Amino acid sequence: AQSVTQLDSQVPVFEEAPVELRCNYSSSVSVYLFWYVQYPNQGLQLLLKYLSGSTLVKGINGFEAEFNKSQTSFHLRKPSVHISDTAEYFCASGTGRRALTFGSGTRLQVQP
Amino acid sequence: EAQVTQNPRYLITVTGKKLTVTCSQNMNHEYMSWYRQDPGLGLRQIYYSMNVEVTDKGDVPEGYKVSRKEKRNFPLILESPSPNQTSLYFCASSGPTGLWTGELFFGEGSRLTVL
Fold this sequence. Notes:
The complex is a heterodimer. By secondary structure, chain A is mostly beta strands. In chain A, 0% of the residues lie in helices and 52% in strands. Chain A has strands at 3-5, 10-14, 19-21, 24-26, 32-38, 44-50, 56-58, 64-68, 73-78, 87-94, 101-102, 106-111. In chain A, strands 2, 5, 6, 10, 11 and 12 form a 6-stranded mixed beta sheet that branches. In chain A, strand 8 (64-68) and strand 9 (73-78) form a beta hairpin. Chain A is globular and about 40 Å long. By secondary structure, chain B is an all-beta fold. Helix content of chain B is 0%, strand content 50%. Chain B is globular. Chain A binds chain B through residues 4, 6, 9, 32, 34, 36, 41-46, 49, 51, 90, 94, 96, 98-100, 102-105, and chain B through 4, 31, 33, 35, 40-45, 48, 50, 58, 90, 92, 94, 100-104, 106-109.
């Protein structure tokens, strides 16, 4: 069975500082990995995905993530955050059968 | 505009009173799914549907029913709601079969409170 662990439930950070949101996954088979973002009172939207190929993937709004198979991690990074990045971020894994397993979420709080 | 529409967005009800949360998508997607979101637990899949008349259980199906009579609609039915079904519910859809990109399109959510 798959599982996704997001190690931090909340991450406070000042505006223009870098940020890393951590995600570890476990799976006995090859996985696809995703980061979704949920802005207040909205549904989730896809931020970026890793299906295969280059382990560094770039997404919308300047976010990127690196797939590390040996460490079973898929951490999300941004070199300089903005107030508008305040949201909840979910890491998810899938095996291609259209069922995603989500982590518990990390609330990013960007302070001025 | 491509979208997934859920109704109602907010609902307060009482234990045992049947209710239906509707979901409709205008993208001609074959795959649709229901998730519930609870603090500290992330999103958990309730039911999903690969196509019309094809539905299957997700991780937490107890207390819920679904139907898929038309491609665009995928209602979630709570026959006898209980307080432990108080949650934020999301409907999601995904594009054609074949290469799956993992992108789910989510509705804005339906916040349900069962007293």
